[in-house]
Amino acid sequence: MGPVELIADALLFDLDGTLVDSTPAVIRSWTAWAAERGITETQFAAIETHGRTSRSIVADLVPADQVDAADARIQQLELADLSGVTALPGAAELLTRLDPARWAVVTSGVRRLAAARLTAAGLPTPRVLVSADDVRRGKPDPEPYLAGAAALGIAPQRCVVVEDAPAGLTAARAAGMATVAVTGTHRPEELKADLVLPGLGQLSVTGSDRFVLTAA
Question: Given CA atoms 112, 165, 85, 148 in this order, what sign does their dihedral have?
């Protein structure tokens, strides 16, 4: 079998862990939030957190009548802490080469936070940004990636998703999209994708009318 080659008319990127490294800020914010709420490390370990909306995570940890306030608080903490948020290797180089009409960011974060992290990392602002504010069901539901494809005017089957989390890859597959996984936050064996790479620096994207993606 030869090397994997994916063909796409548009690329849909996850944000945290794919384009930007926000892990230190995320840990600080959620640690502070948990301390305020009396949430233990054991409680966090019992649920999946990466790639999900803050609201869905909060809903697994606090009573239903506290979800709104608790979610508002973690959003406040995350927006206040952008220290150390940086672009991951290869992200800036790749995005600046792409036609702005042919790529989007699809994130589980809220719009204000996504925009702030892109700016902090020095990455271009996409024409299309799908956030937790724009969908009713977040990843692993396919709605976010389907919304991204629709906003670009590209059929889902002509899109390739670049992700770092199992929840996002599940969403992409359910949307009928091919997938590239980068391994910064999960081990390769945890990531079910058409192409699994250490990072964006190892992803080759060529073509103008149509993208061809291979391992560099």
Answer: negative
More confident residue, 209 or 100: 100
Residues with active-site annotation: 14, 16
* 18 and 61 together in one domain: no
Distances (CA, A) of 161 to 28, 77, 124, 182: 28, 29, 18, 11
Q: Residue 216's pLDDT is what? A: 81
Q: What is the domain count for the chain?
A: 2
What's the whole-model pTM score? 0.91
CA nearest neighbour of 123 among 11, 15, 3:
15
Closest CA to 214 of 7, 1, 15: 7
Order the strands of the 6-8 sheet from edge to edge: 6-8, 211-215, 203-206
1 falls within a domain: no
Q: Is 46 within 8 Å of 38 (Cβ atoms)?
A: no
Same domain, 114 and 129: yes
DSSP result, 5-40: -EEESEEEE--BTTTEE-HHHHHHHHHHHHHHHT--
Q: With 90 as the cut, is the pLDDT of residue 123 above it? A: yes
Q: Return the SS3 of 188.
A: helix
Angle (CA) 28 170 118, round 5°: 40
pLDDT of residue 92: 97
Average pLDDT of the segment spanning 158-173: 96
Q: How many CB atoms lie within 10 A of CB 200?
A: 24
